[in-house]
Design goal:
Number of helices: 12
CATH architecture of one domain: 3-Layer(aba) Sandwich
Bound molecules: adenosine-5'-diphosphate, aspartic acid, magnesium ion
CATH class of one domain: Alpha Beta
Radius of gyration: 22 Å
Low-confidence stretches: none
Helix content: 25-40%
CATH topology of one domain: Carbamate kinase
Strand content: 25-35%
């Protein structure tokens, strides 16, 4: 019998009605003769609700307490799903992250999975039980504290559990019926992809397409687990995230996305001498703050301005670090801007086509959208722009690169 790992997101378990619908899908899979493990998220809106409660006490909340709090959302869902299945006559059992041995590092709110012991999971499966596992959470053994895997982390729980159990495929059920060429809520004529390579999906996910958490794609790629993205609301074929094949390279741009979760920090008047960048970014790294785009402008009188982006959730902590470093190195001041968005185009075909960046800049210019920063990799180009143009930029880039086809001269 093969093991199937299924994951249901917040909207899919957003009410008792929806949970009954999910339980039907799970029961059908069990009836087909599979060993079934299910990961669920917190009910829709619950994680945000909990975070807002914490923020109402202080914006500078403690990350251990954050994890302690937000992990309760998933704990509620697993019990509700397991009870629904039991009421339907199925033998189901719920587990928290710590109960299945979901071992992580100690980076509260953004922990990484170290290993999954999965002993209780394997035992329960051997007894024929349907296992319902809380997404998004783990345990840091050194302290015994609960950790969480970053927003959208239930996807990663699911794919990591699939890898740990040697399942060949992980089914991610969500509120859209697959991965589209752009967020279908922003671009009405976005197209559903039958399949997409891990590399492209990883870029899209890292660059804002929240349909999958990027770490889940990393796990899939590393452990060779195919990821199938499907709708929990309609019975339709989904999108397969898998190894790259030749067909995929024919398409230059397979997706357009935007990310409004970043903020820009500028350190003004940084002394222009060796070691300063190492000092600034070294301090940020010590605090576990990830830096994304970086730009350094040569200024006047041996001083430069240094701008970079961080996740909005890290902004307050990053500003504290930068203000301290600013005083220490004798920079003039630190400013931040939260009204920015990063818009990106992604495609493996870019590797073998020239002129893609030029066309992207042209399209943005034609629409009077100013570019503040640029970053590129082999298969993506990203531009930082004013947040208010985010949706417009996604639409015009989608029209130019996807709808009109891949015409790059
Ligand atoms: P879940 O709660 O099931 O984890 P999410 O809200 O995290 O669901 O992710 C699904 C959402 O991702 C969709 O509702 C859609 O608006 C958004 N999305 C963004 N980009 C894309 C894309 N390229 N393809 C499909 N969905 C996308
Ligand atoms: N409940 C968590 C979140 O909202 C994890 C997830 O849904 O995947 O981010
Ligand atoms: Mg999600």
């Amino acid at each position: 019998m093969s093991i199937v790992v299924m994951k249901f997101g917040g909207t899919s378990v957003g009410s008792i009605e929806r949970i009954k619908n999910v339980a039907e899908i799970i029961a059908k899979k069990k009836d087909e003769g599979h060993d079934v493990v299910v990961t669920v998220s917190a009910m829709a809106g619950e994680t945000d609700r909990l975070i807002n409660l914490l923020k109402s006490i202080t914006p500078k909340y403690d990350l251990r307490e954050y994890d302690q709090l937000v992990s309760t959302g998933e704990q509620a869902s697993i019990a509700l799903v397991a009870q629904t299945l039991k009421t339907m006559g199925y033998d189901a059992i719920s587990f928290t992250g710590p109960q299945i041995g979901m071992i992580t590092d100690g980076a509260h709110s953004a922990a990484r999975i170290v290993k999954i012991t999965a002993e209780r999971l394997k035992k329960a499966l051997a007894e024929g039980k349907i296992c319902i596992v809380a997404g998004f959470q783990g345990i840091y053994p050194a302290t015994g504290d609960i950790t969480t895997l970053g927003r959208g982390g239930s996807d990663t729980t699911a794919v990591a559990v699939a890898a740990a159990l040697d399942a060949k495929v992980c089914e991610i059920y969500t509120d859209v019926d697959g991965v589209y060429t752009a967020d279908p809520r922003i671009v009405k004529n976005a197209k559903k992809l039958d399949k997409i390579s891990y590399e492209e999906m990883l870029e899209l996910a890292s660059l804002g397409a929240k349909v999958l958490q990027s770490r889940s794609v990393e796990f899939g790629m590393k452990y060779n687990v195919d990821i199938m993205v499907l709708s929990s609301l309609e019975d339709k074929p989904g999108t397969l995230v898998t190894k790259e094949d030749e067909d995929m390279e024919k398409v230059i741009v397979s997706g357009v996305t935007s990310d409004k979760n970043q903020a820009k920090i500028t350190i003004v008047g940084v002394p222009d001498r060796p070691g300063i960048a190492a000092e600034i970014f070294g301090e940020l790294a010590k605090q576990n703050i990830n830096v994304d785009m970086i730009i350094q402008n040569v200024g006047l009188q041996d001083k430069t301005d240094l701008s970079f982006t961080v996740q909005k959730t890290d902004l307050l902590r990053a500003m504290d670090v930068c203000n301290q470093v600013c005083t220490k190195i004798g920079a003039d001041r630190v400013v931040s801007d939260e009204n920015i968005a990063k818009v990106s185009i992604v495609g493996v075909g870019m590797k073998s086509h020239a002129g893609v960046a030029a066309k992207m800049f042209e399209v943005l210019a034609e629409n009077n959208i100013n570019i503040q920063m640029i970053s590129t990799s082999e298969i993506k180009i990203s531009c930082l722009i004013d947040e208010k143009f985010s949706e417009l930029a996604v639409r015009v880039l989608h029209d130019a690169f996807v709808t009109e086809g891949d015409s790059v001269s």
